[in-house]
Structure formats: C-alpha cells, structure tokens
Amino acid sequence: MTRVTPAKLVNMALEARKHAYAPYSGFKVGAALLAADGEVFTGCNVENASYGLSMCAERVALFNAVAQGRRSFIALAVAADTEDYCSPCGACRQVLAEFGGDIAVYMANKDGAFRAATAVELLPAAFALNYPQVR
Ligand code: THU
Known about the structure:
The protein is α+β, with helices and mostly antiparallel strands. About 25% of the residues lie in helices and about 20% in strands.
C-alpha cells in the first residue's frame, strides 16, 4: 500500500471540495479522512435551504467512514479556497474527538499549504458522557 502523505491527503480534500454544495454561503469546503487501514474517506459541505440543516465537510467524511465500518483514524485534512488555513468548526472538533485525541488534523489553504495540530490540541476538554450514579 502506498503511504498517504499529509500533502496527498490535503490534495484529496481539495479535490473533494469540488463536490461541495454551497449555494447559500458560497463557501466550499473539502475533507479527506485517513483510516487506520489506509483507506481514505472524503466529504464536502452540503447546505440546505433550511440553513441549519447544512452539514460540514469534515462530518460528512467522518460519517461516511463510520458508515463503512471504520472506527480508527490517523489523520483528517480540511481545505477551502482561502488564503488562510481552513480550521474545523467546534462541532466538527467534538465529533472528531469522539474517535481519538491523537488524530492529526491538516488545515489547508487553496494552494495546499497547511498547518497541523492534533484533535486534542484543537479541542482540549472535549465533552464526554459521564453518567451520574443511579441510586
Ligand atoms: N463548513 C465546513 O464544511 N466545515 C467547517 O469546519 C466550517 C464550515 C461549511 C459549513 C457551511 O456550508 C459553510 O462552510 C460556511 O459556513
């Protein structure tokens, strides 16, 4: 299996971005998620006329991977057509944290330049269920 480098994963996110459905914001985002078995799952943002129903590229990629049986991930690349690096929103950080704090996140700009951080660096103290004792 050929190694999926960070640069390659970023390119896959830029490619996935082309499928973004963003007629309301005009802001297209792509994501590419590398699973532990070497498979890559992509996503793009999908907006809706009922704005709040829109879904981010990162969660589309994550849910796509989980729906195909993956639970273990190495890295997530996210890219937009911006000068600045595209940084995942808080909701996506929480969803990513569910699958492990060590996941690398590559935040890319339109040229494929990126900065890296781990999921836990992006969201320290993520919410976790901590059920009260039933007495
Ligand atoms: N968006 C993403 O896809 N990922 C993020 O991390 C932040 C924002 C999308 C949602 C919406 O379709 C558009 O970008 C503008 O907010």
